[in-house]
Queue: 2 jobs
Job 1
Amino acid sequence: MDDRAEESGVIWKDAPESTIHADVPKDWLDVATGGCVDAHEFLNFLLNEIVDILEKEFSTVKDSPESTSPGRAANGEVYHLANEVRREPLVTWVHKNFQGILTNETKCLMCETVTAKDETFLDLSIDIEQNSSLTSCLKSFFSTEILNAEDKFFCDNCCSLQEAQKRMKIKKAPQILVIHLKRFKFIEQLSQHKKLSYRVVYPMELKLSSASHDVDCEYSLFAVVVHVGNAANHGHYVSQIKSGDHWLSFDDDSVDKIQESTLQTFYGSSREYSRNSDHGYILFYESVAKS
Ligand SMILES: [Zn+2]
């Protein structure tokens, strides 16, 4: 990077395509370039592909002739042999970094029996409201919902459909918390998706407190995927990523240094029609140790 580039903020421009795509498997590129791909769908595809690759590599190591006794995989996990009856699921770095556990709790309002079910997640998809904040949207996500009328819950204890209270709790918070703001909403009257340009303020430091008291994690924002455009079925994606003490903006083959305050321009619009169509879509927070 020369001085001139630093002054203008441009760090990398017009990189040859071969440089960017050199190590990317072809089928990933086919997904990324083969049409309208939603960044959130692509993220899930990518993480699952990486898990598949790591699992295949792991089974190759395991099946090799040297593997005659339980050993330790490159990631430090103890692995078991194929002929062993009890096998533990492989924990890859994708799981270690991105996976959290949610507990889905349902309480029957007749007999008060609580049914709890755990589910793992790699990201949280949350509904958004106009002129709101990420914190308030998360609060709604974790709030108690009443199941009644058409939505009654079948209680095993009562052996019948009953009204119930339902809520989600974080059982295990992930190291990296990925939050997907549901900006693309299906409008039944139009039979199509519409982009919600709602203003949703996201903080640099986020405290994740769900209904569970034993989980209270602090996170720091380190990346934002921004959707550019007013339509739901086309547009462009750019990413803002923190590197050391700086924020960098990645837009195709150009990389620019930006001020942290620029992130505020991606909150969204408080009015329905606005010239600014760049909206924060996927937020990446990293867990920070409490002091
Ligand atoms: Zn019941």
Note: Confidence is low (pLDDT under 50) at residues 1-8, 67-78.
Job 2
Amino acid sequence: MISIVSRPPPGYTSQAPVASALRIPPGRRERPRRITGLLPRRVTRPPIPTVEGISMSTSDRPATAAGTFTIGGDLPVRRLGYGTMQLPGPGVWGESRDPEEAVRVLRRAVELGVNFIDTADAYGPFVADHLLKKALHPYPSDLVIATKAGFARTGPGQWVPIGRPEYLRQQVELSLRHLGLERIDLLQLHRIDPSVPLADQVGELAALQQEGKIRHIGLSEVGIAEVEEASRTATIVSVQNLYNLSRRDAEPVLEHASARDMAFIPWFPLATGELARAGGPLASVAEEHGATPAQLALAWLLKRSPVILPIPGTSSVAHLEDNVAAALVDLDDAEYAVLLRSVA
Ligand SMILES: NC(=O)c1ccc[n+]([C@@H]2O[C@H](COP(=O)([O-])OP(=O)(O)OC[C@H]3O[C@@H](n4cnc5c(N)ncnc54)[C@H](OP(=O)(O)O)[C@@H]3O)[C@@H](O)[C@H]2O)c1
């Protein structure tokens, strides 16, 4: 019997434990309450303090239930983040179809407790970064913005890797300006340019780090050999690879990252929406157990490894709220296995 329970926050007390409010009792055919958005009204939680000292409950800020991961040993983030790639226009090119909703999405993410946002100079280009700055600058003190450099954009859906050191430097300088930052917390090399020695690409990022413009360096879409080669030039604190419940080719890299306490940031955590859609591979399990498909896909990632930081992308507040509530879904081992089988 599969059940979905909610992680109780520290100090949680209630007449009706969260587990019994959401778990499907053995032998009962009754469906549990939906957990989309916030917790069921009947379940009340005591306020818990946040790092800013403002009292808010986990149901107000569901991302807090995902727990934290400390990037590079000194940058704590809540494990369920947000990715900005859905905010620019079609083909991740040009202005947003709905800039006001995009701003609402970013502000709502922070309200829900998200403090890790992944973006890139290439999204728009710079459209996502302008929206980020408009929505959230001056940034909350605990917000970590991870960005990337290494792709030039030549049109909708077109991505050209450029890793020449002078280009990477230019893009980092532009990112600082567009985001309104003095230092980038996490700069990820978006792609390794095969025509430029890796040591030169990572070496330029290390030089920018020495100059105080970058705090930590990460990589994107790499194999273990590339992580090891890059690590000879600089300390690599994160890897961002394509990974989700239905696409797990990056398992070896994930294992490598887990063994070294390196953040693993899975891009396409919802398989570009395939895992989230009605009628998709998780739809019947989700329907049966009172969650949404997106929540199950994200809860599976959160359980897969403590170094995983999912960054689901969306252009809608409703989908954002649905996704962040995944932090409240706690899968047991049997449920985890059922989800794996459901996409096999
Ligand atoms: N390093 C890299 O090379 C790389 C490559 C790709 C992406 N990324 C990063 O990874 C992030 C996530 O990837 P992604 O945004 O492309 O893909 P994704 O998170 O796997 O899926 C996004 C898609 O799912 C839909 N969606 C989101 N939440 C939903 C929900 N609750 N119900 C139904 N549909 C939902 C979105 O549509 P709506 O907008 O309508 O919600 C969108 O079409 C990006 O934002 C970006 O930061 C990095």
Note: The radius of gyration is 20 Å.
